[in-house]
Amino acid sequence: MTEHAPATGQAFGVAVIGYSFMGRAHSNAWRNVGAFYPDVPGVRMQTLVGRDGAAVTAAAAELGWADAATDWREVIERDDIDIVDVCTPGHLHAEVALAALAAGKHVLVEKPLANTVADCERLVAAAAADGAGRVMLGHNYRRVPALALARDLIAQGRIGEVRQVRLAYLQDWLADAEAPMTWRLRKETAGSGVLGDLGSHAVDQLHFLLGEPVSAVRGELRTFVTERPGEGDDGALEQVTVDDAAWATLHTPSGVVASLEVSRMATGRKNSLMIEVYGTAGSIRFDLERLNELEVCEVGDGPAQGSTRVLVTEADQPYVGAWWPPGHIVGWDSTFTSQAADFLRAIGTGAQIHPSFADGLAVQRVLAAIETSSAGGGIPVDVAP
Ligand code: SOE
Fold it and tell me: Which atom number of ligand 1 is nearest to the Cα of residue 111?
């Protein structure tokens, strides 16, 4: 298969590995991308892959896939598959993505890229190898119109020199101590808890909005509920081996200082990624629970000085034109569709796409440094470039 053309016919055959929450969100994106982005190469929703044959067959029919399979190794070798979309638990990301790259496929991986720095480094090397397909990391919030606009405003200097950033990604689906174990609560499958799950999004947003890496951290991890009912019928308690909440102070080479707070026990917060960027000439505030809105403050004078609520729904604003008329807001799901469109466009043109695997490695190095700092009682830790 040449880099930019489907192996068979005029559409790229897609296989999604995994059919839980992210598998469903990605299926929705592959199903809708052609309708909202007719300019990108076409896709054929070929195969949905999962371990339970009956369950994945039912999910494939429900989500619009041509067929279902239980053996991802067989699927990624098929000639009718051009794109492999990895939506498995984190401990399988590297194995599946490396095999798909070796098979000459284009590869999209859900965040975080992998559970360890070493696995991320292997993926970066494989993606750079001759003949590798295009790759992309699924930090979908880069495709929220308000956050893409925020990045543009910062890059244009509209809030001046950035000094201070506040990041908090808060959910509460684990606030109940009786909420049962899942793969996300075991280190061997998730790598870490909320730090990798939600902290990876927040750190990637810091990199995205500022255009520079994190160079040093101090951090603390906390597990509030150390054991939960297991998934078996007997309800026996199982040890939680990952973090419930994490805090960190992040430093950048240009002198920006950011605070990071992530939790999946923040009672009342359902999916609140709050970002505040404070510059010398203004500031920006965003909350994912109000994802169509951006609060912008540009220092001025006169009686109207203050913050403005911008409803980011104008066709000339990032990632809006493909959707609806002004004021007809988009949803969380739209970010996956816009992400799929950018990936397909990059496959068609051969252009570099972000987040790349190198972007994922940069995030993982920050997360690993936070864990090292926490283990040392909050000591300052430099982040490898
Ligand atoms: C659960 O915390 C979760 O589904 C994350 O895994 C996703 O990355 C985030 O977008 C929504 O919440």
Answer: 8
